[in-house]
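Q: What structure does this chain adopt?
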Amino acid sequence: MFQSFGPDDLLLIAQGAVVTLVICSLAVVFGGTLGLALGLMSAGRIAILRWISAVYVGAIRGVPVLLIIFFVYFGLPLAVPGTDVPDYLAAVIALSVFASAYVSEIVRGSIAAIPRGQFEAAEALGLSYWSRYRFVILPQATRIIVPPGIGFLVVLIKDSSLVAAIGLMDLARSGNIVASLTANPILSYLVVGAVYFVICYTASAFARRYERRLSTRAVAPGVGDSLVVGSGVEK
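A:
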């Protein structure tokens, strides 16, 4: 017997939204960290590291995220007998792997957009390789990373709905369950869609605000501009 759409259904959808937020947040942390490392590898001078990064990014970007989720959830236990990967952990691992490849390309492109004169000026000051990136290159690249990073964050949140395929009670799956219980899929999916919109719009609004704060602190240098180190300017 079907039930009418009520507070209990909204609570179930809210619980699914929390799961979506948590797995996406963890994916941003772990995937962003790995993506930053891969981006630095691809922008570095060591050929073998550039090759490793290129192969990894090409392989991950070349397959659907759903296939990555299936491989982690079903493939790892088969590859390593006796291993049990819970659906929650599988979702975080799969989304982190997916995010790392795209973050890597964003980081690499942002570093490549830095004027070559900034690299040369930092080297002329006698800064070590890591100091050049830490104090000169990455602070400038951060301002370039934000816009495409916003777009990918929205994509990640929406693509996280695919974890419902392995039974994780995320926002999408909770919407499916409510639609089955109430026999009212239109209202159920409208509510789920509205929650996705609020999450994505809020994330975009915060990111745009952060981008504006970065823009007021410093302006991206031109080829002939002075060297920017951290938040200060050295002429």
